[in-house]
Design a protein that fits this description.
26 helices; disordered N terminus; DNA-binding protein; eight-stranded mixed beta sheet; 13 strands; 548 residues; 3 domains; alpha+beta
Length: 548
């Protein structure tokens, strides 16, 4: 009887595993690895401790993260921080710690202050200045959101849209999609929280810069006050560089910022976008390509409280100059035009055919802000894990280099080496590569950025991209997606499994598992500083290997 019962349990477990794999509820490779680990634990009767791959001494961690050695030691003593013996540690240096875990502990104790009264007054002053020009209706709506504590950007439709994304992704293999037909219709019919008259100078400029979300009924605008403020920054920076009367709106907004913040107006306005997003969060925000690149500063500022963020990229800017700088700036650089002081600026000669609406997203002029005010910004703390598809990077690097010859090719390759060297020199950046095409799977292709608080989903389907380049999802919204299926218990169970793919803990676990198994190759570890000569050598080796 005992043997019969054991056999029944074994069969039931086997059937459960097969069902999970065949239905697509759990990706088969992950299911196999999970079963292997479970079997090993049952055999050994213990749960082995998997060591983090970023172990360093406490002294190294304190230097890398920028906290005192005493603080790290105290966190270990009071249990806030785990310590690991691991290989290579000695009594002289003591137990080692994980760089990522030290960054998390440090950032939890140095979070940004809430939206202080002084910062709010500065933003109100900027908005009042902006209300004197063509952007007045948008500035007034942002000011209303800032002053009205009952302002609410949530809507059941946004929860349904994300639910349709998750349902469509449940397909097996090639059947995985971004949206069901119903979801695509819901996405296109969402009405922006803040609407914009596209016939006004501000509406025309924002439209040409690809800063406006357009719905199926013809309305255009923004899904949140923070994104509306971000679009004003976009108009004030790049928008002021283009010829035509509409660029006057950009000059007006730049002047409004300079009157409040002086020379630091770009950084301070980016800070204001971050604080406004914290004050008036939106559960689901549609992003155009321009907004996606322009928003990286706010995303990292929001992510730094958790200490770690993760990004996946098929076309990595740190290796591809055209994707780092965007088409106009790279055109200037290739022509030998001296660089202006502002990192986002370019010459009037480079504005030819250079509006974002005239370029593919990979050459978008806002891309440089993605790095200058985001990934490579030393004032934003925390470990930034940036993982890219080496196969895609190799293809794009070769394709662009093959269009050039002689001096231009040499200059282009040198720019690629320079931007990669600069990335490797940033201590907070962890750079990894996925060498196999098959290993850059469906979820990696869609999760552009992830943190404890939010995930940015990139859309690839052309029908969805006509509406949005990406969706910014607040992770606090995910439980509501599961509950939205309360009339269908089986669907709710499957949703619960697939929603996990959008939770940071799962994304982080997959990232670390890929590193351990060799799926991801770490080029430079986060939290550790490289010497200029070592960074240059590593960059040259990587770029020349891709071109070989």
């Amino acid at each position: 009887m005992q043997n019969h019962r054991d056999e029944s349990i074994s069969i039931a477990l086997e059937r459960l595993a097969l069902t999970l794999g065949e239905s697509g509820a759990v990706p088969v490779p992950e299911l196999v690895r999970a079963l292997e680990r479970a079997a090993e634990r049952l055999r050994t009767k213990s749960v082995p401790e998997e060591l983090p791959y970023d172990l360093v001494t406490q002294a190294e961690a304190s230097r890398a993260v920028g906290v005192s050695r005493q603080a790290v030691n105290q966190w270990v003593r009071n249990g806030t921080l785990r310590s690991y013996e691991g290989s290579g540690s000695s009594s002289r240096h003591g137990p080692r710690v994980s760089l990522a875990e030290v960054a998390v502990a440090a950032n939890r104790r140095s979070r940004d202050v809430p939206f202080s009264g002084g910062r709010r007054r500065e933003l109100l002053d900027f908005l009042l200045n902006a209300e004197q020009g063509s952007a007045a209706p948008v500035a007034q709506e942002i000011r209303r959101a800032l002053e009205d504590d009952s302002y609410d950007g949530h809507s059941p439709e946004r929860i349904r849209v994300l639910g349709e994304f998750v349902v469509a992704s449940m397909g097996l293999g090639d059947q995985q999609r971004e949206f069901t037909p119903e979801g695509l219709q819901l996405l296109s019919e969402l009405v922006p929280a803040i609407t914009v008259d596209v016939a006004t100078p501000f509406g025309r400029l924002a439209g040409s810069l690809q800063l406006l979300i357009r719905s199926a009924d013809g309305t255009a605008g923004f899904d949140s006050p923070a994104v509306a403020l971000l679009s004003m920054l976009g108009c004030a920076t790049l928008g002021s560089l283009y010829p035509g009367e509409d660029s006057g709106v950009g000059h007006e907004l730049a002047h409004a910022g300079q009157e409040v913040w002086g020379e630091d107006w770009v950084e301070r306005l980016l800070d204001a976008v971050f604080h406004l997003g914290e004050l008036r969060p939106s559960p689901l925000t549609r992003f155009t390509s321009s907004l996606t690149y322009l928003d990286n500063n706010r995303f990292l500022r929001k992510a730094q409280a958790a200490g770690v963020s993760i990004s996946y990229s098929r076309g990595p800017g740190p290796l591809l100059p055209q994707r780092f700088y965007g088409a106009p700036i790279l055109r200037d650089m290739m022509a030998g035009v001296p660089r202006p002081d502002a990192p986002w600026a370019f010459s009037s000669d480079s504005t030819r055919d250079a509006l974002p609406t005239q370029l593919e997203s990979g050459l978008n002029p806002f891309r440089v802000m993605n790095y200058e005010y985001g990934l490579l910004d030393p004032d934003i703390h925390g470990i930034r894990r940036y993982c890219f598809s080496a196969a895609d990077a190799r293809r794009d690097l070769r394709l662009y280099a093959d269009t050039l010859s002689g001096r231009d090719r040499h200059r282009y390759v040198e720019y690629a080496v320079e931007s990669l060297t600069r990335t490797l020199l940033e201590p907070s950046v962890e750079l990894g590569a996925v060498d196999s095409v098959q290993d850059f799977d469906w979820w990696k292709d869609h999760i552009i950025r992830a943190s404890q608080q939010e995930v940015l989903l990139g859309l690839r389907d052309e029908r969805a991209r006509r509406v949005a380049h990406a969706l910014l999802v607040s992770t606090s919204m995910l439980p509501s997606v599961v509950e939205a299926a309360n009339t269908d218990s089986s669907l709710r169970d499957r949703l619960r499994i697939y929603v996990k793919n959008l939770e940071f803990d799962v994304i982080d676990a997959r990232y670390r598992d890929d590193v351990r198994r060799g799926v991801s190759r770490i080029i430079k570890q986060g939290g550790l500083a490289m010497s200029p000569s070592d960074a240059r050598t590593a960059a040259e080796n990587e770029i020349h290997a891709m071109l070989a």
